[in-house]
């Protein structure tokens, strides 16, 4: 595909240009006399910059191949083997980092904290899948994401979930994305990385409860296909938005659909839209009034969500270590004598006045108040739009993948008897 190749060549050129400018070490090793030798660091050094750019080039190549295989080659087998490569390289070899899913937090922190600067490679890991999704659909999910690949390989006997349940669970990724952005913007935590259920499997090292969570997702994924991708992944929310406007997208049939219905049960993710039933379309005229009511109620949902978020900001802000420590010392002065509380003892040994800590916590809590208003309003909008979508009917003539929900895995293409 010419457009795919052009995009790849442009990004590769930019990568090598940036790599050339940043290879020079800003702070060279000091030169000491008297036979001084620099000690070996206890912790491993960061990954070499050249290798980080190699990761970006590999991602670019994988995205290009996935887009070509999904749209032009129409090869499910090619996409499958590409996902296996991504699982090995980005998952087990790179230990799940750099991760496009977690890069959302780096971008949020960069936007709200002037003291933090995102690295070029992390920014590219965030942007590249979005650019390809805008042109070719969610081919990142099909061939480049190690989290999705691990789940996709373990699908054994997928079941179809009721539509009401899918839409209800579909709100969770929006909530997760909202909290991830709020926590990152306030400098509290990177919760996507901390609670990634599969990164412990990639690194063969995780806390016990995270190992159990990862295994639970994999076991559930044998029957509820890609449970994490569908009902938790925050990056998937943004990919879904982009995919809805994709210029090209995977199609079930290469030419005209003959309505054979062979593909109707082929998608384990319930991402195929069926042709509109004429009887149903005629009986839905009564939904106009309900549509108007739901549309009018959206501002109310936004206000309710924002108000609820603002009321919860005090409790949510306790996740920030500065706020938690300040509240602990103010509400329980006796904790100063607790020698086992390392956070308290570290603060006391620093010599910082308690008043300074309280002021810092107050500033952070104000950020949470504003952020919780926005986050709650956003969730109110999501709920309102979800309800509104229940009464919106679009006439469809063929069996076709839903652009937002389709992972471009190519399974459905093998069920279509139509040839080019």
Report on the architecture of this protein.
The protein is mainly alpha-helical and 420 residues long. It folds into two domains: 2-14 and 51-275 and 402-415, no CATH class; 280-389, no CATH class. It has helices spanning 2-22, 49-73, 76-93, 103-112, 120-136, 139-144, 146-152, 163-169, 172-185, 191-194, 199-203, 208-221, 227-231, 234-244, 278-283, 287-316, 321-331, 342-350, 354-389, and strands at 272-273, 400-401. A two-stranded antiparallel ribbon has the order 1-2. Helix 1 (2-22) runs antiparallel to helix 2 (49-73) and helix 2 (49-73) runs antiparallel to helix 3 (76-93). The longest helix has 36 residues, at 354-389. The protein is globular. The two termini are 17 Å apart. Mean pLDDT is 86; it is low at 9-27.
Which secondary structure elements does this structure contain, and how are they paired or packed?
Blueprint: H1 2-22, H2 49-73, H3 76-93, H4 103-112, H5 120-136, H6 139-144, H7 146-152, H8 163-169, H9 172-185, H10 191-194, H11 199-203, H12 208-221, H13 227-231, H14 234-244, E1 272-273, H15 278-283, H16 287-316, H17 321-331, H18 342-350, H19 354-389, E2 400-401
Antiparallel strand pairs: 1-2
Helix pairs in contact: 1-2, 2-3, 2-5, 3-7, 4-5, 4-9, 5-14, 9-14, 9-19, 16-19, 17-19
């Amino acid at each position: 595909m010419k457009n795919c190749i052009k995009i790849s060549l442009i990004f590769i050129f930019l990568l090598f240009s940036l790599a050339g400018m940043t290879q020079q070490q800003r702070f060279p090793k000091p030169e000491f006399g008297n036979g001084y030798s620099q000690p070996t660091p206890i912790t491993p050094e960061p990954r070499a910059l050249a290798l980080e750019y190699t990761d970006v080039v590999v991602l670019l190549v994988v995205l290009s191949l996935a887009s070509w295989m999904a749209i032009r080659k129409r090869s499910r087998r090619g996409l499958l083997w590409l996902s296996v490569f991504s699982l090995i390289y980005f998952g087990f070899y790179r230990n799940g980092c750099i991760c496009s899913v977690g890069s959302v937090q780096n971008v949020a922190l960069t936007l709200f904290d002037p003291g933090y600067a995102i690295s070029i490679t992390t920014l590219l890991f965030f942007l590249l899948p979005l650019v390809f999704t805008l042109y070719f659909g969610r081919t990142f999910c099909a061939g480049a994401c190690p989290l999705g690949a691990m789940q996709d390989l373990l699908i054994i006997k997928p079941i179809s979930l009721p539509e009401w349940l899918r839409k209800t669970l579909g709100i969770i990724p929006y909530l997760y994305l909202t909290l991830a952005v709020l926590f990152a913007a306030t400098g509290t935590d990177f919760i996507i990385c901390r609670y990634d259920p599969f990164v412990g499997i990639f690194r063969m090292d995780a806390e016990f409860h995270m190992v159990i969570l990862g295994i639970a997702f994999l076991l559930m994924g044998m029957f509820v296909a890609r449970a994490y991708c569908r009902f938790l992944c925050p990056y998937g929310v943004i990919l879904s938005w982009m995919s809805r406007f994709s210029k090209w997208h995977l199609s079930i049939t290469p030419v005209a659909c003959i309505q054979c219905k062979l593909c109707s049960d082929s998608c384990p993710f319930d991402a195929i839209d069926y042709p509109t039933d004429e009887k149903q379309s005629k009986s839905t005229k009564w939904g106009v009034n309900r549509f108007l009511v739901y549309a009018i109620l959206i501002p109310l949902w936004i206000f309710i969500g924002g108000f609820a978020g603002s009321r919860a900001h005090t409790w949510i802000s306790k996740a920030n270590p500065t706020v938690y420590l300040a509240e602990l010392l103010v509400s329980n002065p006796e904790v100063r004598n607790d020698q086992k509380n390392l956070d308290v003892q570290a603060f006391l040994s620093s010599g910082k006045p308690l008043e300074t800590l309280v002021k810092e916590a107050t500033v952070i809590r104000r950020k949470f108040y504003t952020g919780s208003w926005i986050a709650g309003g956003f969730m109110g909008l999501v709920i309102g739009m979800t309800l509104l979508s229940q009464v919106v009917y679009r006439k469809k003539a063929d069996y076709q993948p839903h652009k937002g929900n389709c992972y471009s895995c190519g399974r459905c293409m093998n069920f279509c008897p139509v040839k080019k």
